TrEMBL record:
The lineage of its organism: Bacteria, Bacillati, Bacillota, Bacilli, Bacillales. This is Epoxyqueuosine reductase. InterPro entries: 4Fe4S_Fe-S-bd (IPR017896), 4Fe4S_Fe_S_CS (IPR017900), ARM-like (IPR011989), ARM-type_fold (IPR016024), HEAT_type_2 (IPR021133), PBS_lyase_HEAT (IPR004155), QueG (IPR004453), QueG_DUF1730 (IPR013542). GO terms for molecular function: epoxyqueuosine reductase activity. The keyword Transmembrane does not apply. Cob(II)alamin binds at R57, C97, D134, S139, D140, R141, S152, N155, I158, L169, C240, D241. PANTHER family: EPOXYQUEUOSINE REDUCTASE. It comes from Laceyella putida. The gene is queG. Binds 2 [4Fe-4S] clusters per monomer. Catalyzes the conversion of epoxyqueuosine (oQ) to queuosine (Q), which is a hypermodified base found in the wobble positions of tRNA(Asp), tRNA(Asn), tRNA(His) and tRNA(Tyr). It comes from the Bacteria. Keywords: 4Fe-4S, Cobalamin, Cobalt, Cytoplasm, Iron, Iron-sulfur, Metal-binding, Oxidoreductase, Queuosine biosynthesis, tRNA processing. The active site is at D134 (proton donor). [4Fe-4S] cluster 1 binds at C188, C191, C194, C247.
Amino acid sequence: MNGAELKQKLMAKAKEIGIDKIGFTTADPFIELRERLKESQDKGYASGFEEPDIEKRVRPEHSLPEAKSIIAIALAYPSKLKNPPRSEPGAYRGIFCRASWGEDYHHVLREKLTLLAAYLQELVPKARTQVMVDTGALSDRAVAERAGIGWSGKNTSIITEEFGSWVYLGEMITDVYLPPDTPATDGCGDCTICIDACPTGAIVQAGQLNAQACIAYLTQTKGFLAEAYRTKLGNRLYGCDTCQTVCPKNRKIHFDHQAAFQPDPEKVKPLLKPLLHMSNREFKEKYGQMSGSWRGKKPIQRNAIIALGHFKDQTAIPDLIELLMNDPRPVIRGTAAWALGRIGGQAAEEALRQAKGKEQAEEVLREIDKALDMAHAG
Ligand code: B12
Ligand code: SF4
Ligand code: SF4
């Protein structure tokens, strides 16, 4: 069977196993990406979550010797919640980004790619394959762009004609030759809506992100969140969708045919207060299947505290005092102090003063002092 015939068969199989979009490219090095990754590292824009070895990232043969082709796939995920529960005074809610709705996409895409790889091996028994989703060495976006899945938007997301940017990406490298597709071309034109809408100015120029300033990244950090960003976080518990929700290419785009990505509204828009006292076990049981739980419960709890401060939720004061006084984690005590300072009031101020008398950790004491100033000024 020649490459073109193989490709046709793979495309038909992909459809059968529920892959929404498939594209093909060569395993040639990603030359342009090399410069971009280098610049991102040099300027301190990288998140640190990506593979640090640039050569591994741009040369597919580092992942699979004698690589010849890459098969890129995309799966669409929903952008809207049916009957979303509403935040109400005293019962405020946080939000997980859409890429964390439903089952963890890593498993779902990997499973489909593994089925596709098995099929290729049926057709070409000597074929070798390497499957990747997010955590692999390659840039999933650079692969998708070159394989014609979608163009690289100014917000850095891959945007497909059919599903907008609400797609997960993954790929399979193989040593089998498959004719490449045409790379996607820019569809943003003069638009700059995402750049203007980004709350932290993290899109430093069209297509280039300073991940260190991106809320999606900041929600995943484990330490204290720099003060300047706390008020920008809003009620985000994990990730940030702003530069995608504002994008005109996503207007009216909502695909919920992938059963695995159906969100449970109570999980993706949970009440904030119950999150504060969750045990590790409860957290794992409730959120363990979501991709947004990969950093554990601490960042989510820290962000929940910030969200309560953002809403100035008076009814959260007793919970926040409890954390300030008794939580063993300095980041949680210090962030609770910040939230109490923001909410203000006599009970908050008194608790902060009391905590100041017994707190040992320098960084928490600094937060308490600032919070007392804030409570006083407010
Ligand atoms: C590290 C990482 C992050 C970091 C950094 C993101 C970033 N933009 O670099 C953080 C934590 C911030 C993040 C956030 C998100 N991520 Co993320 N992330 C990754 C990861 C693991 C590596 C990305 C990377 O290498 N970045 C470094 C840059 C330099 O590389 P790159 O983005 O791949 O480069 C492309 C473009 O950015 C562009 N580019 C880069 N530099 C420059 C410079 C110029 C001048 C120009 C014009 C273009 C350009 O060229 C490349 C080809 O398209 C990938 C998975 C993977 N292995 O690739 C997922 C991935 C990119 N993330 C994904 C998702 C869904 C998200 C979020 C939407 C989740 C959320 N809702 O919070 C946000 C989006 C934030 C944003 N504006 O990008 C999806 C993207 C799907 C899509 N449709 O594009 C991926 C592909 C995971 C997956 N397999 O589905 N992510
Ligand atoms: S994900 Fe949020 S913070 Fe990051 S670039 Fe987009 S709008 Fe800005
Ligand atoms: S908002 Fe505009 S510039 Fe940004 S990604 Fe969408 S189309 Fe491109």
